[in-house]
Amino acid sequence: MRLSAVALTSILAALTSALPIDNSAYHDSKTAAQIARTLLHRESLTALATNTGDNVPVSFVEYYADCHDDGQPVMLMIDISSSNKNIENGSKASLSIKVGDHQLHDHVDPHYPGQVLSSTAGSPRVSLRGKFVPVDVSEDISLRECFSKRHHDSVFWFPGSKVHSSHWTKFEVEEVYFVGGFGDRAYIGEIPVEEYLNATLLNTEEYASLFHKQSSECR
């Protein structure tokens, strides 16, 4: 049985209206910038998208860490990886990060304003567009310490390893597109890059009561 467009629209509207009312709803880019920065800081896995020489888009999961606490992730790039080769050949790059993008051993706070708890579609995700820039070699020791806290196995391919030739690199953010969840309760759209870079992390205590209310309503 096929459903008409009108019927499908009605069903989707009914499902949306049945979701718990979220008192932490927001529709401003300033709050979105805070959430995007917090999301990147909490998580540690990203889908890195590049283009091949034939201009075919490819995407692979990569490790990262917000080692400089500035919303511009540090990554450990393997020299022979296809992503690195594409970048060396002039490919543009973007990163995408969503709630849950972290190692299994990590305990990461999954709560955000405007979120529908336990719904990937109703939770924040962000797309960052920019370029990779070199990291000063003097930072090697501090980056090893930072990175290994988030990615225990990464120590085996740190720069100088016999396993792989690798190097530290930083993703310099130039554009930010944010989807906070469902549009009736969260911001969706571009975030000015300066607003993103200057944003502070969320004060979890400030939203604690709202998070508790969300959890209770979603049970």
UniProtKB/TrEMBL annotation:
CREG-like beta-barrel domain segment(s): 28-197
Q: Where is the signal peptide?
A: 1-18
Record bears the keyword Chaperone: no
Question: Which keywords label this protein?
Answer: Signal
**Which InterPro entries does the protein's record reference?**
CREG_beta-barrel, Split_barrel_FMN-bd
Q: Which Gene3D superfamilies match?
A: Electron Transport, Fmn-binding Protein, Chain A
Which superkingdom? Eukaryota
Any one Pfam family here would be CREG_beta-barrel
Q: Which PANTHER family match?
A: ADL397C-AP, CHROMOSOME 8, WHOLE GENOME SHOTGUN SEQUENCE
Q: What is this protein called?
A: Unnamed protein product
